[in-house]
Inverse folding.
């Protein structure tokens, strides 16, 4: 694990906001990406199964608002598009 900031949530937070946080045991930094059931290049993102936060997914709350974890509701704001970057 690197020493720079990671995309994470705090284990003990009530609001489960996805943030850039330093690495450490108090932060969840590993994510599972599941392909969309409708196909295409979108998918959902959730904490790894070992976190105990199963069924909670990245959910965009709107323009300039945070990404939070919420139960899967098949919202467009829970589907994320992945693009391969040229190296």
């Amino acid at each position: 694990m690197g020493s720079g900031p990671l995309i994470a949530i705090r284990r003990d937070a009530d609001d489960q906001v996805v943030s850039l946080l330093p690495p450490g045991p108090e932060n969840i930094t590993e994510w599972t990406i599941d392909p969309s059931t409708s196909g295409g290049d979108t998918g959902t993102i959730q904490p790894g199964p070992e976190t105990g936060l199963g069924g909670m997914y990245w959910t965009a709350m709107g323009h300039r608002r945070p990404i939070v974890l919420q139960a899967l509701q098949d919202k467009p704001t829970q589907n994320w598009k992945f693009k391969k970057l040229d190296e």
Notes: The chain has a mean pLDDT of 86. The radius of gyration is 13 Å. The beta strands are 6-10, 19-21, 27-28, 31-35, 42-47, 56-60, 67-71, 80-81. The chain has one domain: 6-80.
